[in-house]
Write a structure and sequence with these properties.
The protein has 385 residues and is of the alpha+beta class. It is globular.
Length: 385
């Protein structure tokens, strides 16, 4: 039976910190006004800039008796903002210094009801959000329907396989529709900040060219924007470990304290396994890695384990316990290990694997247990590795 994996229904909004490259225009004609239904007279409204680590407070006002409000905030630069009533009731806006934006919505359900005029990028963001919400909602309904049928089927494998096959088709169709929509959105809006939210819905390894293209377009349109700068840094990190790129050099102490380099293994197919002795899922995955190693270790294949441990004794004990009879390296710096930034897997977490061909190029990443053996077999059995 194939597993049906339902994505979380959300849009990952890109937000970044600001620096001196964005000079606020304190004499701009910026205005943010609106009218809310659903009450709220006298309730405070807060305008915040969405930064990488927090939401920076910029301005506040109160909703008038007729539901109206107005901001003439100084210091607005092109970027993402949050108009907040409470921590759970807010609207996301993409604003610029000279815009006159008008927003309407229900003060009780602002996040799901607001509309805006006067801000083209906010309009695009809302279009994207609406389409995505509907698509993800349908997937969520399909998942709940599938789970209900599974409960009825009990442990009957034939029924479970049949149900899985029946549901996979509609689910895959929804995924394909969402991807097509996002690709079309990016092509139609190559220099919109709303595209920063759109591109996050695409798998970087498969659609890295769209990340790179958006970076180029935004860099030309907003060369001094720190939002764009942060995105550029992200794209650079993605490209550094993209499928087909030469695997970045790893240079760390082995269990004896001797510096070992990944390049020492050039000429062999290598599975780089990022793990830690304190990581439960890592320990569960190790037996399969050992199995693959034992099967192909005499066929030009090896494993290089890179640990995020900080306790050397715990690291060495785990190596012995799980029979990791290959090279093990670690700088014992936990998540501050240089390997985390170099291979860009902090958001993904561990275990995280990278399969490298004999000529040092990345072939695949984060490989499932079911696929690992086949992928290694294909590489060691190929004349062109």
């Amino acid at each position: 039976m194939k597993r049906i994996f339902i994505a979380v229904a959300c849009i990952s909004l890109f937000a970044a910190c600001h620096n001196g490259n964005n000079t606020p225009n304190n004499t701009s004609g910026f205005e943010l006004s609106g009218k809310f239904s659903g009450g709220g007279a006298g309730v405070a409204l807060f305008l915040e800039r969405m930064d990488a680590e927090n939401n920076a407070h910029l301005d506040s006002t109160k909703i008038n008796g007729d539901g109206t409000f107005t901001f003439h905030t100084k210091g607005i630069v092109k970027g993402f903002y949050r108009l907040r009533i409470t921590e759970s009731d807010f609207a996301i806006l993409i604003l610029d210094s000279n815009e006159k934006v008008h927003i309407t919505g229900d003060a009780q359900f602002l996040g799901n009801t607001y509309t805006a005029t006067g801000s083209p990028d906010t309009k695009l963001f809302l279009d994207l959000n609406q389409y995505s919400r509907i698509n993800y909602g349908k997937r969520d309904s399909l998942q709940r329907f599938f789970q209900a049928l599974m409960n009825v089927a009990g442990g009957n494998k034939k029924k479970v396989d049949s149900l899985s096959t029946a549901v996979e088709g509609p689910y895959d169709t929804l995924v394909e529709r969402q991807v097509r929509y996002v690709l079309g959105f990016l092509k139609a809006n190559p220099a919109s900040f709303a595209s920063l939210a759109a591109v996050e819905q695409l798998t970087p390894d498969k659609y890295i060219s769209y990340y790179t293209s958006l970076d180029s377009s935004l860099s030309r349109a907003y060369p001094t924007s720190s939002y764009v700068k942060i995105f550029r840094e992200k794209v650079d990190a993605l490209n550094r470990v993209a499928i087909g790129a030469v695997a970045p050099e790893l240079s760390m102490p082995d269990t004896n304290g001797t510096i070992f380099n990944l390049s020492n293994l050039r000429g062999k197919v290598v599975l780089i396994d990022f793990w830690a002795s304190w990581c439960g899922p890592c320990r569960e995955a190790l037996p399969n890695v050992v199995k693959v190693y034992d099967k192909f270790k005499d066929k030009n294949f090896t494993v290089l384990s890179v640990s995020l441990d900080k306790d050397k004794d715990a690291w060495l004990a785990a190596i012995h316990k799980f029979h990791l009879h290959w090279t093990n390296i670690s700088d014992l710096k936990y998540w501050d290990s240089k390997a985390v930034t170099l291979y860009n897997f902090k958001e993904m977490g561990i275990p995280f694997t990278v399969l490298v061909s004999a000529n040092g190029k990345i072939v695949d990443k984060n490989i499932s247990e079911d696929d690992l053996e086949n992928e290694v077999a294909n590489l060691v059995g190929s004349k062109k590795m």
